[in-house]
Amino acid sequence: MATPKELRAQGATPMVEMTDISIAFGGVKAVDQVSVDLHPGEVVGLLGHNGAGKSTLIKVLSGAYQMDSGEIRINGDKVEITNPRDARSHNIETIYQTLALADNLDAASNLFLGREITTPMGLVNDAAMEAECRKIMGRLNPNFRKFSEPVSALSGGQRQSVAIARAVYFNAKILIMDEPTAALGPHETQMVAELIQQLKAQGIGIFLIDHDVHAVMELCDRASVMKNGQLVGTVDIEDVTDDDLLSMIILGKNPAGVAA
Amino acid sequence: MTETTSQPIPEQQKRGLFQQLELDMRLLGMIGAFVILCIGFNILTDGRFLTPRNIFNLTIQTVSVAIMATGMVFVIVTRHIDLSVGALLATCSAVMAMTQTQFLPNVLGLGLDHPLTWALTMVIGLATGTLIGAFHGWMVGYLTIPAFIVTLGGLLVWRNAAWYMTDGQTIGPLDKTFMMFGGTNGTMGTTWSWIIGVVAAVLAIAVIVNGRRAKLAHDFPVKPAWAEAVICAITSGSILGFVWILNSYNIPTRRLQRMFEAKGETMPEGLEMGYGLPISVLILIAVAVVMTIVAQRTRLGRYIFATGGNPDAAELSGINTRMLTVKIFALMGFLCALSAVVASARLANHSNDIGTLDELRVIAAAVIGGTALSGGIGTIYGAILGALIMQSLQSGMAMVGVDAPFQNIVVGTVLVAAVWIDIVYRKRLGAK
Ligand SMILES: Nc1ncnc2c1ncn2[C@@H]1O[C@H](COP(=O)(O)OP(=O)(O)OP(=O)(O)O)[C@@H](O)[C@H]1O
Ligand SMILES: [Mg+2]
Questions:
Q1: Which helix (H) or strand (E) holds A32?
Q2: Chain B: nearest CA to A130, how far in angstroms?
Q3: Considering CB atoms only, which of A84, A127, A171 is closest to B215?
Q4: SS (H, E, C) A157-222
Q5: Coil, strand, or helix at residue A34?
Q6: ipTM score for this prediction
Q7: Strands of A174-178's sheet, edge to edge?
Q8: Which of A22, B123, B188, B218 has the greatest number of beta carbons closer than 10 A?
Q9: Are residues A134 and B309, on separate chains, in Cβ contact within 8 Å?
Q10: What is the pTM of this model?
Q11: What residue spans define the domains of chain A?
């Protein structure tokens, strides 16, 4: 299988192309003419200061927000994503920064929310869902025990594990991770890093939003930096240093000698 | 996702005998309060409160509010409210009264007591309620008008639509078959009641056994077998006990005589017949079972609770929360119409004030039954028990001879106190 870099060099069609995306909230241009793309097996980091517009940009792709203008192509075909159901039908899965869990339901119900396993009679099969939930949590967070409690009773990191499980369980082709490790301990963060490597090897494309420049350097193939709703630039991780990325984030300028 | 290092299931540690029953403590608390209430009134009324006759009356008086309360659970769980249920009941009742006394006889030539009359009437009434409910839901979900406002408007509109339709007249008598769906006008008799009771008890045990099997199939922890047996015994015992009580309320001799006369027969001397299960109570039980299944075992129910817990999360999970709102209010409207059947059949006519203040009784029943106004929490059985507690309070105080103003003062106080106790209880448990 060709690496993402080779694919780009060959001029292969990206699995996701977001072109000139703009969205404003009551006059504030949260995202302004931003273009990013993603190839199979590639991890693209999205960086930028708080309020730069990273979450807003990916929420356009996940169907949570509707863009004011711009174009989204999946595998070369123009698509309309007007709600989260559309995004899911394109195998786009999202871990939201706010996690988007129903606090009153248990882990299994959240994992399968909107896609419940049902019995032949069409009733929800809680036992089967809990069994599946135990399996995947065994991989993601082996210390997780609270299967029969509502997720409001979980710690921040445990909740995050549930949200991650939900995104990776359903065979996503395109994965959006908005600060997936924000609440995780060092060990759990390491497990998510390994998970990302595995998913990447399976040919899944990942948008990763993370404030940790070191993590981005380690996990990503490319990084797109945003500032005040605009794209500062997209760089190949191999061509830049931590300091280059930091100065892009802080100064909003491309480092000398690196093509966008 | 192919790797399977599944999570170990923790060993069941030794616990107290009582805890091994894994009973719902909230439910136990409510039943406890209800029992204390009944015993208290029974003492105050020198044993008149807990007679088969009074229990029978209490049950048929509770049905209409209890049916609507099950729907109100879903409405409140999704952080909405419906202030229009009493008025909607009145409109449905008026529509059905006019249908059977005016529309069907005059337009289709079907007289009162024609075998099709009751069925057509009910179809039209239930459709009316469902459509109006769906309309409310559409305004709440798609036009994003707060449910409080939509249904406050609905309260005025539908109360007076009913008035306009009937010119404020009492409409009666109603179709004989139609009237069987409420109160003493339609009961199953003792034999059938026993049969239904036994079948229900067997079904209940089957459900418990099945649930245990499903858990065992996935190696999940189960209660010890003896605990399961105790629960089976309590459940089937309560069902049969309830049937036994209703069966022991005998039809008054005069009424029995009239029933025989109507058939052109004479009543054998000294004959005694129990009422048995009222049809309206069977309807309530059916509604309770179906609504519980919807709440716990269907996607619709799962989405209702998810939306109540976190509307944004539900939407982001691909749930069409707007359409869900329409469905919930349509269901509420359907149940209002069903209550309208029961209420007008029990009174044997449609009166202009039917269902007045029911919105408050229904909301109170749901809330006393543990439905949280902040959303996401509520049970069907709780709401029904809540309705029963409210009705018992009201009837009990009337029997004791408490003045009318004090009755309402007490009911209002109990509502507030019940919610406060619930809040304290939930804090203790550490749950939200
Ligand atoms: N629903 C909304 N309504 C109004 N303004 C919004 C909304 N969502 C985001 N914004 C605004 O859009 C801008 C971008 O926000 P966004 O959440 O995309 O930032 P971010 O890059 O994800 O920041 P962070 O690193 O803090 O998560 C901010 O100015 C924010 O206030
Ligand atoms: Mg963000």
A1: strand A28-38
A2: 9
A3: A127
A4: HHHHHHHHHHHHHCCCCEEEEECCCCCCCHHHHHHHHHHHHHHHHCCCEEEEECCCHHHHHHHCCE
A5: strand
A6: 0.90
A7: A92-95, A174-178, A205-209, A43-48, A222-227, A230-236
A8: B188
A9: no
A10: 0.90
A11: 4-91+173-251, 103-165
Q: How far is CA B292 from the centre of its chain?
A: 11
Q: Which residues pair with A23 in a beta bridge?
A: A31
Centre of ligand 2 to C-alpha A239, Å, is: 26
Q: What whole-number distance in Å separates Cα of residue B69 and Cα of residue B85?
A: 10
Q: Which residues contact B335 (CB under 8 A, 6 or more apart)?
A: B67, B68, B70, B71, B129, B287
> What is the amino acid identity at position B66?
A
Domain locations along chain B: 52-178+278-416, 187-276
Q: pLDDT of A107-163, one tens digit each?
A: 999 999 999 999 999 999 998 899 999 999 888 888 888 888 899 989 888 898 899
Cα gap B147→B150, rounded to integer Å: 5
Q: Going by C-beta distance under 8 Å and a sequence separation of 6 or more, which residues neighbour residue B57?
A: B395
Helical H segments across B78-108, by residue range = 85-98
| Domain B52-178+278-416, architecture per CATH | Orthogonal Bundle (1.10)
User: For A48-58, how does the pLDDT look when each residue is reduced to its tens digit (9 = 90+)?
Assistant: 999 999 999 99
Q: Whats the size of chain A, residue-wise?
A: 260
Confidence band, pLDDT 50/70/90 cuts, at residue B15: low
Task: Quote the tokens at residue B411.
Answer: 């009911």
- pLDDT score of A260: 46
Tens of pLDDT along B183-237? 888 888 888 999 999 999 999 999 999 888 888 887 777 888 888 899 899 999 9
For domain A4-91+173-251, the CATH superfamily is P-loop containing nucleotide triphosphate hydrolases (3.40.50.300)
For residue B156, which of B51, B86, B219 has the smallest C-alpha distance? B86
**Is the backbone peptide bond immediately before B173 cis, with ω within 30 degrees of 0?**
yes
Cβ contacts (< 8 Å) between B22 and chain A: which residues? none
Give the CA distances from residue B326 to residues A69, A178, B144, B234, in Å, rounded to whole numbers and listed in that order. 31, 32, 11, 39
Q: Are B44 and B237 in contact (CB under 8 A)?
A: no
Quick one: tokens of A123?
């009733």
Helix (H) or strand (E) holding B296: helix B279-297
- Whether B317 sits inside 8 A of A96 (CB atoms) is no
